[in-house]
Amino acid sequence: MAQLVRRIGWGLMALLAIGIALAFAAPYLSLNSAVSRIPLNPAVTLHFPILVIHATTGGLALVIGPFQFLRRLFAKRPALHRTLGRIYLICILLGGLAALFSALVSTSGFVAQFGLGFLAIIWLYSAYRAYETIRKGHIQLHRIWMRRNYTLTFAAVIFRLWLLVGALLLRIPFHAVYDTATWFSWILPLLVTEWFINQQLLQALAVRGRHAVQLPAVEKSQLLAKEKSLEPVLSIKG
Length: 238
Ligand code: HEM
Known about the structure:
Helices cover 80% and strands 0% of the residues. The protein has helices spanning 2-25, 47-68, 71-76, 78-105, 110-135, 139-153, 155-169, 174-210, 217-229, 231-234. The radius of gyration is 21 Å and the shape is globular. The chain crosses the membrane at residues 12-31, 43-67, 87-105, 111-131, 152-174. This is DUF2306 domain-containing protein.
């Protein structure tokens, strides 16, 4: 049952990621500034070219992300996982720097500029931590940082879903929906991700802690089996 829920969740995530990348980011490949959905800053000539870099690299990262969480792909094709991982991180580096620039020159107002600018910084930071941990061989920490980082990448999806729901269904003024989206699209998903990470870690540590007390043999063997299933979480280094 849990596996079915996980598969449906993954499918939904991949579908939304690909859909948003095709609908919102791909048009920028035409290099025609008429496709821009946001007003361009007339005083900044580089605004549109930088937006093109941001949309294309962000779109590619959004599409690659879900496949990096497939354990089967990682186990069967580790070289492919590594190559896609490198492309993903390069996309975040370029997309994140371009996002920071776009936030600075944006004409969307202070609230949006600050929300997206802050997001760009933690997007870059979490990608750096994911890279640093895997270079040191800390696989479990790398997984945790990648989860955080992809949650932030996925903000691009939540952002646009909230715009649709808020402006079209709830008929909230567009400016207010846009401003709230620049903060809630990443803060709320990040809280959910942190909750999942904590749950897994706490459960693993609680199981380990119970070994310190004397237990009947049957209960102890059940705990050992449970601990074995949580091995990926317990084997965090550093
Ligand atoms: C998660 C970190 C991200 C940050 C910090 C960020 C930041 C920004 C900023 C500052 C703008 C300009 C907004 C404005 O001036 O009002 C923008 C626009 C845009 N971003 Fe991102 N972005 C992120 C992720 C993504 C991803 C993953 C995609 C992939 C679909 C993406 C696609 C776009 C597109 C297509 C635009 C132009 C507006 C539009 O046509 O919808 N962004 N982004």
